[in-house]
Amino acid sequence: MIEETGRVVAVEEGAVWVETIRQSACQSCSAKAGCGHSALSKLGRQTVHFRATASGHFAVGDDVVIGVPESLVVTSSLLAYLMPLVIALGLALLADHYTGSDGWAALAGLLGLAVGFAALRWYFSHHQLDDRYQPVVLRRAFVQTQCHSEYS
Q1: Phi/psi at 51 (5° precision)
Q2: What is each CA distance from 72 to 2, 51, 106, 115, in whole angstroms?
Q3: Which pTM was predicted?
Q4: What is the pLDDT of residues 57-98, one digit of tens each?
């Protein structure tokens, strides 16, 4: 399970809306000064809001730990990266086989990319409300607070 900590910003029946802060691995990278990704990560929106299913009672302002199954992340990543490429390659090979023209093969490859992205968009929108693909609130997050004692 891949876990992330966030704060509840709204409560629904059986679900909560969670705000997380987008983090980048750039802070621990030694090449961050000369990397374009580091500069781009500073430009974007830093908070992300999304819906997570919850079985307990949560209130606005609660810090929670949410989780997504690792298998879901792997499957979604493979689909997102491979589906458009496989369809593009398949259409390009078919066009090359039947026409023998590089121009038609290139055009079919571009058409395959467009079809792959459209199929991907349909697949993810079709499964958007499926509970198997939703993040889940695992538990409350315990935030450390500083305690001041009279003995310090």
Answers
A1: -95, 135
A2: 10, 16, 33, 23
A3: 0.63
A4: 899 988 999 998 888 889 889 999 999 999 999 999 999 999
CA 1 remoteness from chain centre: 14
The first and second tokens of residue 24, run together, are: 């980048």
- The domains of the chain are located at 2-29+39-140
Which tokens hold the place of 93? 């090979």
